[in-house]
Each structure stands twice: as C-alpha cells, then as structure tokens.
C-alpha cells in the first residue's frame, strides 16, 4: 500500500504542462473615446470661432 501511495504521489509531482494562461487582449485603439474627444474639440473650436467672429463684429 505504501508503494501505491508513493506512486500516486510521484505522478502528481511530475512536471506537467503549465496551466494555460489567458492571452492578453490585443491593443485595440480606443476609437469611441477618440471620436468623442475629437467631436468635443471640434465643437469647442466652432464655438471659439463663432465668439471671435461676434467679438469682431461688435
């Protein structure tokens, strides 16, 4: 019985393949965030242009 226990313990301690690791996700560009920020910048630039034009007119 001792031999059987040692055999079972031996197979458990044998070097096996490492557990599969999840691959890191590919680095996708943050298109939605960039588009949103770009839209904000465009809106602010338009507003600045509009205010500058009103300032020059008055």
Task: Tell me the layout of helices and strands.
Blueprint (H helix, E strand, L loop, with lengths): L1 H12 L17 H27 L1
**How large is the share of residues in beta strands?**
under 5%
Helix-residue proportion: 55-70%
How many E-type strands? 0
Uncertain regions: pLDDT < 50 for 5+ in a row? none
Write the element-wise H/E pattern from the N-terminal end onward: HH
- Return the average pLDDT rounded to an integer: 77
Secondary-structure-based class equals mainly alpha
Main pleated sheet? none
| Shape category | rod-shaped
- The oligomeric state of the chains shown is single chain
Q: What's the helix count?
A: 2
Could you give the distance between the termini?
102 Å
| Rg result | 33 Å
Describe the structure using short key phrases.
58 residues, mainly alpha, 2 helices, 0% strand, rod-shaped
Summed up:
The chain is an all-alpha fold. The chain contains 2 helices and no strands. InterPro entries: GG3-like.
Question: What does this 3D model show about the protein?
Answer:
By secondary structure, the protein is mostly helical. It has a domain at 30-58. The protein has two helices and no strands. The protein has helices at residues 2-13, 31-57. The chain is rod-shaped, with a radius of gyration of 33 Å. The mean pLDDT is 77. InterPro entries: GG3-like.
